[in-house]
Amino acid sequence: MKNFSSPTLIERYFRQLTDGCGNGSCTNEFCASSQNFKPLDKNAAAVKALELFKNNAKLCDLHIPKKDPSSFSGVDRQINVRYISIYFFYKLPLLPTDIHHLTENNICMILRFCEEANDFSAAAQAIGRVFSNSDCLMKSFIREEVKNTKQLHPQNHPNKQDESEMGAAAAIPNQDTNEILDLSDIKVDINVIRRVYERILSIDEIQGALVDALIFLTPNLELDLEYLDVYETNPDYLNIFLIVMENTNLHSPEYLEVALPQFCKAMSKLPEEAQARLAKIWSQFGLHHIRRMMETFQQLITFTVVSNEYDSDNIVNDDETVVAATKCLKVIFYASILGGEIDVGHNEEEEEDFDSEELSLHELMGEERIYKRGPRVDPLETELGVKAIDSRKPLIPFEEFINESLNDVLEMDKDFTFFKVDGESKFSFQTCPFILKVITKNQGLYYDNRIRMYGERRLTAFYSMMQGREPTPFLELKVRRDHIIDDALIRLEIIAMENPSDLKKQLVVEFEGEQGIDEGGISKEFFQLFLEEIFNPDIGMFRYDEDTKLFWFNPSSLENDAQFTLIGIVLGLAIYNSCILDVHFPMVVYRKLMGKKGTYQDLADLNPMLFRSLKDLLEYTGNVQDDLMLTFQISQTDLFGNPTLYDLKEKGDQIPVTKENRQEFVEMYADYILNKSVECQFKAFKKGFLMVTNESPLKYLYRPEEVELLICGSRKLDFDALEKTTDYDGGYSKDSQIIKDFWEIIHSFSEEQKKLFLQFTTGTDRAPVGGLGKLKMIIARNGPDTDRLPTSHTCFNALLLPEYSSKDKMRDQLLKAITYAKGFGLL
Fold first, then answer.
1. What is the dihedral of CA 643, 644, 649, 651, to 10 degrees?
2. Highest mean pLDDT of the ranges 92-106, 145-159, 808-822
3. Tell me: the pLDDT tens digits for 745-774?
4. 55 in helix, strand or coil?
5. Residues 542-595 pLDDT 10s
6. 727 forms bridges with which residues in the sheet?
7. pLDDT of amino acid 12
8. Is the pTM of this model over 0.85?
9. φ, ψ (nearest 5 deg) of residue 39
10. What is annotated as the active site (predicted)?
11. Could you tell me the CA-to-CA distances from 763 to 346, 482, 516, 523, 821 in Å, in that order?
């Protein structure tokens, strides 16, 4: 039977039934040469030939050379095909009921006959019937080794099955022959499915049948999964979703209206165990296929959002299609993570919780749902055993999972409520933070922080009423400019020891001896001055790298842990009070704050020279031991620049680095630099940070690079965007000549002068998350021409600009103001 395609095999069965094999002693009951065979007319023989082919029945060896199928005359061949084709199409209404699942073989057979008849209605009906039935589709395209394992009939020798598959494979070329998939976890043959789709999706009748079948199939899938727990009883149910998602036309308009939304609703009903299994399977498919699936769900979300109008009564959270597609996109998100570079180890020890009595009070007041403690846990993360923070480099960049259209219509105040309170009854997109922009997440974090501040005020009022003491609704910090570190350290240390929950109150700073009510601006200046002092190299708490312009913890610092705890508290307070800080930490600091230890890869931005040296060591092709002469003892410099030795292993100076252990050496070297050498300092720093943020959804919503953006703001300053969003007051407008002159002056400034202007006007030289276009600056008229300098209210991002008589005068006055201004009440 080797090297024969499906139609040729059917012809041989037909010839065997009508003419026999030519062997007078044949015992095959389905051969005309057998003495026990009952003669059949040609119509009956055509029916029986198809049945024998389907069952892979015994086929006799021919003993009549002239009747070999390969030597059939043109007339003979036409007659055979005609009889079989007549049966095939006359039996059209019954044909789909005869096919209970699809294989590459029977699809090839059907398509061959349809092509000869130039009518694909039979194929559309057969394929549509299987794709509309969950049981039939689940049993389709099963891998051959799985079928052979399940049952191997005595009359079906394995070679015969292989031969029939060879014929099918010849009909549909394999486009993925170079792709190696380790998919032992599934029973369907992915490459066969892809070959079949490639063939049938170009046929309009079959394409329409697939759309209709999916529409018919998906409601039943949804019911099965929601009410019958079908996956628990039959894990092969997942085959359906694997088969459907290989359809490369799912993003096309005919699917987007009904079929794909219904399919997403069904898929979103899969239990976490099944979704995790899908993510693991798809993670092996490679970038091209994962990206296609990601784009399919993204296109559905975008199509649905732009096709609808949302308002306060009809919010996007209530759109079942968008919600279901987002849940499906989450599976692809984790598949992208699993398929990329991940680091599931190297986790920092969890810090202790900072319990306080207020929680019980919240419970008494019925607010325990709002004031939940502890980080949220994504059940799919738990099932997979991997988190977004574990991803070093996903297959698809995280940014591509953000959906701009969804972010534009999402009402974060309502979404936050669903996230914190009504999570069981309402869907919150914050449970899928990968789809949100950082600025959208910031709105949610802002609501969370403000509600906690408001809650602390209520608690303070409650305590004051019960204990008869004066209420202190704010975290009040009174400091002297020339003793800012000492004053802040003493005050914050007392608060942290006596009542850490006070750190959750709104920060109000007062500089001793200065006028000014802190509505945000004084706090901004406090943070700036504090950081200038704390990062001063003379203090020795941090080391500064001239090449990278980054600070790192000084392992030899003489300062106690309380100082580092204070810095952590300040970073947490900046996030909690929506202030941007001018800090320059490497990314590994934020990764460690989010729970990951530093590894060799983190040295790339902290110490590029050391990273390259270790990389060269790993890639060295010569004799590592003799040529490099390294040991497991390394040298570092202390606070005073003196060299100190450290053994990475016990008696490390006696253990040479070889080709076999160089990977271990590199890992231990990086672990020492990033973790062990600064363990005490960083632990105190993180403790302070968590005192403020331990109840925040920060860790759940943000990735390390987003936390850096949240704390430090953006270094990219787009003053064109700032100009477009600036408001005017006091008689000025964007068409006023002085305003036109003002913006010409600003655009002509150097980068350093622009930073000074931004510092003068807003209290920071960084752009907020989202860029300067998100900064609402106000320019107000401050009287007629005068020799007074411009002034500002940094609390409100307001610039008070007199109506100067000339452009040159305005430029001079602006430069004086931004260069020499410092403090409150000086101008």
1. 100
2. 808-822
3. 999 999 989 989 988 888 777 888 878 888
4. coil
5. 988 888 889 999 998 888 888 899 889 989 998 888 888 878 899 999 999 999
6. 778
7. 79
8. no
9. -60, 145
10. 795
11. 38, 19, 14, 9, 11
The model's pLDDT over 417-447, given as tens digits with 9 standing for 90+, comes to 898 876 677 899 999 999 999 999 998 888 8
Q: Which tokens sit at 608?
A: 């590029």
Sorted by where each starts, the structural domains of the chain and their CATH numbers stand as: 6-55 (no CATH), 114-142+187-255 (no CATH), 715-821 (3.30.2410.10)
φ/ψ (deg, to 5) at 208: -65, -40
Q: Which residues, including other chains, have CB under 8 Å from residue 112's CB and lie 6 or more apart?
A: 5, 6, 7, 171
Calculate the CA dihedral of residues 579, 583, 586, 590 and round it to 10 degrees.
Answer: -30
8 Å CB contact between 218 and 241: no
What SS3 class is residue 149?
helix
No. of H helices and E strands in the chain? Answer: 38, 12
Tokens standing for residue 85: 């084709």
Question: Alpha-carbon distance 561 to 572, whole Å?
Answer: 17
Q: Which two tokens mark 331? A: 């599976």
Among 478, 536, 474, which Cα is nearest to 505's? Answer: 474
DSSP 3-state of 397: coil
Read off φ and ψ for residue 188, nearest 5 degrees.
-85, 155
* Residue 108 and residue 171 in contact, taking contact as beta carbons nearer than 8 Å: yes
In Å, the largest CA–CA distance within the chain is: 123
Q: Write out 798-818 in H/E/C secondary structure.
A: EEEECCCCCHHHHHHHHHHHH
| Residues annotated as catalytic (active site), given as ranges | 795
Check the CA dihedral 547-550-556-559 and report its sign: positive
DSSP conformational letter for 346: -
How far apart (Å, rounded) are the C-alpha atoms in residues 598 and 287? Answer: 28
**Dihedral over alpha carbons 606, 610, 615, 619 (to 10 degrees):** 180
Comparing C-alpha atoms, which of 70, 74, 64 is closest to residue 31?
64
Decide if pLDDT at 63 tops 70: no
Query: Torsion angle, CA of 567/570/575/581, rounded to 10 degrees?
Result: -80
